[in-house]
Specification:
- By secondary structure, the protein is an alpha/beta fold.
- 52% of the residues lie in helices and 15% in strands.
- The chain has 2 domains: 5-208, 2-enoyl-CoA Hydratase, Chain A, domain 1 (Alpha-Beta Complex); 211-262.
- The protein has helices at residues 29-44, 66-72, 77-94, 111-117, 145-153, 155-162, 170-176, 188-208, 211-223, 229-244, 247-262, and strands at residues 5-10, 13-18, 50-55, 100-104, 107-108, 121-125, 129-131, 167-169, 181-183.
- The chain has a 6-stranded mixed sheet with strand order 1-2-3-4-6-9, sandwiched between helices. It has a 3-stranded mixed sheet with strand order 5-7-8.
- The longest helix is centred in the C-terminal third of the chain and has 21 residues, at 188-208.
């Protein structure tokens, strides 16, 4: 793994930091491969129960590195290949039973929107802006934007975003359901720190509770489109039974029942 992504694990929390701040954490080949490797490791390690995705510098992710595209790519095949590498990491996050929180300060655009959509809970700053902007340079949505955006905000709003030169304000992103929380800081640097701190609080909340159950709940919701209604009901029934058999659930159910019987009537 290279310095394009900083990776660490601390008490069950894997932190992945996009680390190309001079290019607004836009993806080149180095970051694409580091992203694939880091997400694959984070979602397959037994000691990881939650993931926090953040970014260095003034922005979360500006998508693809357009300057590098223009200077190194003579046709579209390398771009297709790199998108496939990044998509491996996106699938690792979305198909896992590990909840993922994003600390997405600053601007998120292009493929960065797909990266944001691949997380399960997003915290942004009041000055953050989020958009598509692919068509501004003649390109089409990638990195799961067309696969996930409509599910997140509805088809009509998804079309508004991909068919206009528009960056949503933080308030709009919250209203649309694209993000979960907005925090405000005194300036850009302070706000970025607050976004990261709040995202870590969310992750630590998962870890302090029934982390495995949160992960399975995420998996159930994320994987539902691949099943019929009847199949989803059956998978829910199987999952809750499997959860009940864990030591964590047995202890929590017993504690809840004991506390309930002691309450005055």
């Amino acid at each position: 793994m290279t310095d394009a992504i900083l990776f660490s694990v601390d008490e069950g929390l894997a932190r992945l930091t996009l680390n190309r701040p001079a290019r607004l954490n836009s993806f080149n080949a180095d970051l694409a491969h580091a992203w694939r490797d880091a997400t694959t490791e984070a979602t397959t390690r037994d000691d990881v129960k939650a993931i926090l995705l953040d970014a260095a510098g003034p922005a979360f992710c500006a998508g693809g590195d357009v300057i590098e595209m223009a200077s190194t790519m003579h046709d579209g095949s390398p771009l297709t290949e790199l998108a496939g590498v990044i998509n491996t990491g996106i699938r690792a996050l979305t198909e896992s039973a590990v909840p993922v929180v994003a600390a997405a300060h600053g601007t998120t655009a292009g493929g960065g929107l797909g990266i944001l959509l691949s997380t399960d809970y997003a915290v942004i700053g009041a000055s953050s802006r989020i958009g598509s902007l692919y068509a501004n340079i003649g390109l089409t949505p990638d990195l799961s934007v067309s696969a996930q955006l409509a599910d997140a905000v509805g088809r009509r709003r998804a079309l508004q975003l991909v068919l206009q030169d528009r960056l949503l304000t933080a308030e709009e992103a919250l209203e649309w359901g694209l993000v979960a929380e907005v925090v405000t800081g005194a300036d850009a640097a302070a706000e970025a720190d607050l976004v990261r701190a709040r995202a870590e609080e969310v992750a630590r909340f998962w870890l302090a509770g029934a982390a495995g159950a949160y992960g399975e709940a995420k998996r159930l919701v994320r994987s539902q489109p691949g099943r019929t209604f009847a199949e989803q009901l059956a998978e829910e029934a199987r999952s809750i039974g499997a959860s009940f058999d864990t030591e964590d659930a047995k202890a929590r159910v017993a504690a809840f029942a004991a506390a309930s019987t002691k309450k005055p009537r």
